[in-house]
Amino acid sequence: MTDAQNNTDFRKSLDRLECPQQRQLAARFVESVLHLGRDERIKKVVDMVHKGDPDPEELEAARKMIKAAIVDSHCRCGSECDWKEQATYFVARAAAAAVAPENKCITRNAAWEAAVNARMACTCAAMEDEDISAEECAKQAQIARDFLNTLPAGSETA
Amino acid sequence: MSKTSLERGLNILREQIDSPTAAFFSSCVHCGLCAQACLFYTETCNPAYIPIRKLEPMRRLWEQEYTLTGKLKKLLGLSRPITHEELEQWQELVYNSCSLCGRCSLVCPAGLDLTYMIRKFREGMAASGHAPEGLIGATTRAVELGSPMGVTLKALEAQAKHVKADSGLDIPFDVEGAEYLVLLSSMEIINYPEYLQAVARIFHQAKKTWTISSEAFEATNSGIQIGVSDIAAELVQRVVDAAEKLRVKTVISPECGHAYTAIRWEGPNLIGRPFGFRVRHILEVLDELREQGLLQVEGVEDARMTFHDPCQLVRRGGVIEAPRNLIRMVARNFVEMKDHGKMNWCCGAGGGVSANEDAAEIRLKAFKRKKKQLERLQVDGLVTACANCRIQIEEGLEENDMDMPVIGLTEMLASHLKDEEAREGGAT
Predict the structure, then answer these.
(1) What pLDDT was estimated at residue A157?
(2) Smallest Cα distance from B138 to chain A, Å
(3) Using CA atoms, how far apart are residues B232 and B49, in angstroms rounded to an integer?
């Protein structure tokens, strides 16, 4: 199960997770690309999720904070794209997935959404060089494997 | 600024004063209705932002050179010549505080197409060296790199790779004989990668052939926004060449307002001949697919949602019912803003306003109109069909501490597609 051979299997393995697990794994994916994000708010959100069992108020505050980070880091229409800055945008979007409301967390597979955005961040950061998103894919598979192995048997429901 | 550049600008401006423009200037009854239709005026109450006033230097030129009284006044030294200083002062009025939304044109009882005139005034402004830095940069990049935001083919290919990984679907490049040629805005490539994936999934379900041209994938046209018709024509020509080379039947303009105006309504006039293919906005194509029963969706949104009409698509472009038909397929509680459809209020960032850094303050002031509309409606979410509107609304909501998801219509439809087979088979 944890040995995801391709993205479909990888995604399906994440589909089975409950919301708190989705959030935890999403936060790990974000952490892996945190160095690409230039906004301190992203780390604060990741730390909050890692702390475990955030209450609704904490989650709401985190959602607002990360939304502001997304808006602040987007590339304005007509301006020259700074790909490094754009990496921050995608890291922030990945972090937003980690604190998504419960219904979206499950229906949109928050962990997968974080993974995809983290890969986009890698692509942006390396736009002028060799794309490093493939390395990130492999890294994410390992992160997911490690995470899923820490879960008690049968705890990943769907 | 040199005397030569002023002369060049004034010459261009003289050429722009055609018979409709002359008729418009002589027909103005000074009723002030255009003021009440312009969100830059209503949200600031600054008389400088009254639409007809934004054209004052151009009006004076018309009067001085094309009317008897104006000629006499000029002869007697009673008229004021247009100077660099004046045009410099007008830059903010012509570029930062006009989004070419067309609402003033719609309400004018004398039929003045003020947007048409501002568009022409920008030609003179650009030629005299008074275009804003932001738009100059965007236009230069559009000409040199093919994208106003510096998006290269490499960036698009990288995004296509992510779509493949996420959905299992290939993004087709340079497929000759495909039915549709899909254009994208740089904003979609950079900020909203979900758009491309949504298009791929919808066409996969509808079993339609489509392609992207590696030579001309950019839909936006900075030449229109800055007011340089030669550049606008060149950018349109690139798309026409790609469409003809690939022999496509339809070129699809993306979720970008002015791109639609540029390619569909101004395009043939700019290059001086009709196109050998159809041009449609993505929402028009999706509505056609809906009519043909090729858009199969499941599930409905229970949230109370509204639609922000992008001005160039709806008021200027006439695509009014298509978005509503599509939204009703997937949203149970769709509600309209008080002023909607062709009378909707602009987001405040169109027509090149967003490209100008120094316009940030005024465009966020202008957003207050949208804020009032949304507060009155009390909705849970907003749908739109223009990436620039979307980002302006997201920014405006954030600025005003309003929490509401904003989503592109194509993306929303794709999230309700019945066929999920496309998700199978994505390789790492």
Answers:
(1) 52
(2) 5
(3) 26
- pTM, 2 dp: 0.93
B391 contact A CB<8A: yes
Find the largest Cα–Cα distance for chain B.
80
Q: Pick from B374, B379, B416, B417: which is nearest to B393 by CA?
A: B374
Q: What is the pLDDT of residue B421?
A: 55
Tell me how far apart the 2 most distant CA atoms of chain A are, in Å. Answer: 51
Instruction: Give, rounded to a whole angstrom, the gap between the first and last alpha carbons of chain B.
Output: 56
Answer for the pair A144, A13: CB distance below 8 angstroms, yes or no: yes
Q: Where are the domains of chain A?
A: 16-148
| Distance, CA of B166 to CA of A8 (rounded, Å) | 8
**B170 in reach of chain A (CB within 8 A):** no
Neighbouring C-beta atoms of residue B60, cutoff 10 Å:
18
B361 touches chain A (CB under 8 A): no
Is the model's pLDDT at B103 over the cut of 90? yes
Mutation site for A-interface testing, chosen from B95, B191, B401 by largest number of A Cβ within 10 Å: B191
The candidate with the shortest Cα–Cα distance to B66, out of B110, B10, B121, B22, is: B22
What domains sit in chain B, N to C, each tagged with a CATH number? 6-131 (1.10.1060), 140-290 (no CATH), 294-414 (3.40.50)
* A6, A79, A80: residue with CB nearest B428: A6
Rounded CA separation B48/B56 (Å): 10
B380 touches chain A (CB under 8 A): no
Residues 6+ apart with CB under 8 A from B417: B201, B202, B205, B296, B297, B298
Among B83, B116, B121, residue whose Cα is nearest residue B2? B83
